[in-house]
Write a structure and sequence with these properties.
single chain; Nitrilase/N-carbamoyl-D-aminoacid amidohydrolase; Rossmann fold; 18% strand; elongated
Length: 547
Amino acid sequence: MKIALGQINPTVGDFSGNAAKIIQFAQQARSAGAGMILFPELSVCGYPPRDLVERPSFVARNRTTAECIAAETRGIAVICGLVTPAEADSGKTVMNSAALLRDGRIEFIQSKMLLPTYDVFDEMRNFAPAHSQQLFSFCGKQMALTICEDAWNDKCFWNKRLYRIDPIEELVRAGGNFVLNISSSPFWIGKRELRRDMLAAIAKNQNVPVAMVNQVGGNDSLVFDGSSLVLAPDGSVIAQGKSFEEDTIFFDSSNLTGEMHQQIAGEEASAYEALVLGTRDYVHKCGFQRAIIGLSGGIDSALTACIAVDALGAANVIGVGMPGPYSSPGSISDARTLAANLGIRFELLSINDIYQSANQTLAPAFAGLPADVTEENIQSRARGLILMSLSNKLGALVLSTGNKSEIAVGYCTLYGDMVGGLAVISDVPKTLVYRLSAYVNSRAGRNVIPKASLDKAPSAELRPDQKDSDSLPPYDVLDTMVEDYVEESRSGEQIVQDHGYDPDLVKRVIAMIARSEYKRQQAAPGIKITPKAFGYGRRFPIAAKTD
């Protein structure tokens, strides 16, 4: 039997749009001779719906939409994800479910058993787990239908398991001989390889084929890479979908042959495409078409602008140079050159008058006090004022340009360079910023990002001859500390022992990370591309004492 994977990009809450997409893909798969097509987890309502599931009307629309899809897809079996009411004694109102639609009706429903509560996931907050599982028959196969996390508990793959039960093991023991998994598995660098290895382990350990369809697209901070897979019982990949774009993948469930669509390879290329997709979907799904970026002549704003142009098109991106009293002529010319290279509109608006006026207004209150970081931040906030004013007037979303290294230690200004609706590279460490910028130029075959922006010492240019290194350790050192402390949860003592860093320096950086939590919780959402991003996947208190 020819089976299809419908790797689609749904929008949370867009029932009519999601249904139209599911129907379109299903009808095309039917025309191509497929007998069944699988769609991702919660594809009817979009993932993650979060607290929208508390609205009865939202839950009811899942059912009516699924029934509409069933009526429009006769002639092909459709498996799609949706929210269903929970049993009264569960303590929750809904379940995360998968429905088999066949012959114009909902024939079978299986709900998710394993509900993740780590990193960005909080499904126990919203859903009740399934108490039991059943197989369904299709073309001589006993199909084991599972949902995302249900496949992430193989005792032969994980050293430490998070759940007592393994839904796939139980279904195979009950006679299942073909595993289907519908997923909304978010991307981070290295996740695709981990997912493939995990699924291969299941196929080999259970001696069954495994087909996994994964959502694609951006929803808020999360990017879903697609990269759907079908694996033979020996763990070999016999069909795969593209990465970071919608796709339909066909395979034969009997002879286990299928289509191998090319996936984006390499850390830089995959991270860049994730940022582009996340930016495009965030801007468009929030109802915007255009974006505004403050261009400083530095590497961070340059990379952000390149991502925005690839996401939205040059005609929909506006670059704004905002020179101040300490801006170098080179920074202004680098910003202008970048804008010309990208073909975007460029505005040059000086902050000098705003800065001087603010100082004059504040002079009586500041009398007798020396100049310090306060005056530096006034410059940054003057730029934020300009960007947000342009945003209001032009109806364009401001993209902030701070990287993960700066945001980690608070080397950023609230209501200044942190203003905006999306922090595009807030999960990109500074060292990766340089790698991605080099990738942009290499891919283009020319210096889209000016060489000077790559070569010059990073500086906020808020005081004479200022450099980032005046306040921070070298970025390769800082990024190692941030990765160890934030992503790996290593202690200061472990970081010193592992890398031989100065204990006082490590202690100072950790203190900066802790002290800056109040800033990060007021920041624009960012696009997650690492295993542990700042945002709702890292829930730390603001008022707390840390060692």
